[in-house]
Fold this protein.
Amino acid sequence: MKNFNKIVNHLITTGFVYPSSEIYGGLSNSWDYGPLGVELKQNIKKLWWQKFVHESTLNVGIDSAILMNPKVWEATGHVTSFNDPLIDCKSCKMRFRADELIKNQFPNVNVDKMTNDELSDFVKNNDVVCPNCGKHNFTDIRQFNMMFKTHIGVTDDSKSVVYLRPETAQGVFVNFKNVQRTTRKKLPFGICNVGKSFRNEITPGNFIFRTREFEQMECEFFVKPEDDLKWYDYWKKYCMDFLLNELSILKDNLRFRDHEKEELAFYSKATCDIEYNFPFGWGEIWGIADRTDYDLKKHMEYSKESLEYVDAVTNQKIIPYVIEPSVGLDRLMLMSLVDSYDEETLENGETRIVMHLDKKIAPIKIAILPLSKQLSEKALSIYKQLVKKYNCQFDESGSIGKRYRRQDSIGTPFCVTVDFDTLNDDCVTIRFRDDMSQKRIKVEEISKYID
Ligand code: ATP
């Protein structure tokens, strides 16, 4: 089992992630991405966009606003029911989610469909204890809306309230007509949307796994109602293939978890999570849901606008069903980082930390390393050529062994070493991260070779 704290430490010291506003003592569970983290994030996002938007002839993309008309969230039910049931320990003042508290101590109890009163009764009548102080002394349950509120304009009155979106999906639903009209797409088709979402999570944690500000990559795929389950299966497989083939995640660390009937949202016909086996347990990465016609119908009701689709052949009006594959970008990052982290013992007894990140997402693709500072000029000219195509790093400090280790530890798949022979034969040594083997090739062939 990998040591999660060690991995987190490694990611902070190498510049993947920093605690947010650290010089002011940070802000709990807020993180910034450093020079390596931002590259990794962009690479994963680009890959997702490539697979879900560009390579899929059925889908298109949009980029919708974070601030939306607050009626959107009334229509979806977020204003009234996007709530966490909160409970406080009266003895030590720690705060918990009542459903999580029960689930952790009574794993066989199904808390998903329990009302607040039922949760409250369960806590009272059973031996539920505070995980912090061990006492059984709780307050009643309070509902807590997870949407962040803010105000538009200069007044703080209730008329000016807007919310930071808790999901990107609604930006798609409210644009359904616009996209359909402007692209003239026929069913089935999908609309993808990527961006920040905000949830005032009560129990954030596990590093970047659960934060209050995170990035989602969602696709709302519109289908004829009778075709929904066929496309539900299609997107389940598509998402799993993305993890296995594009991000090269180990198969044994992934699983589908179908939601039981009792666990399904009332409007959903089927929902499945793809989970990853983190050092802290299995955690949801991707949710794939058959949301039926719930969202479009709700928006029709609240906006009084028709969001029906007219079949070009039969002229029939229908409200499409929706299959939604929704994934958190930060969770994809955490999974890729944890999955690729390795500590190997070398022949000389030393330990090498190596991140076997898939080459497509590695923050730095090639490190250019002159053996001596006298070779810097030649090495820089190679760097300038390669960096036009690949993100490269130029590093001339420290012994070559140390420089290789540094690149291994941040997942750089290729090192290009420039030595004194390079000045005569115009060849360099390429060294490979995973098996540390080396190969000598012509400078002019590096780019083609790496392609
Ligand atoms: P969870 O059960 O973990 O709270 P959820 O079922 O509420 O997640 P969805 O609403 O289905 O999550 O959101 C889709 C995806 O967005 C999730 O699969 C996850 O990858 C990501 N996500 C949701 N909440 C967070 C968060 N607080 N921090 C980071 N990523 C998140």
In short: Residues 17 and 33 are 4 Å apart (CA to CA).
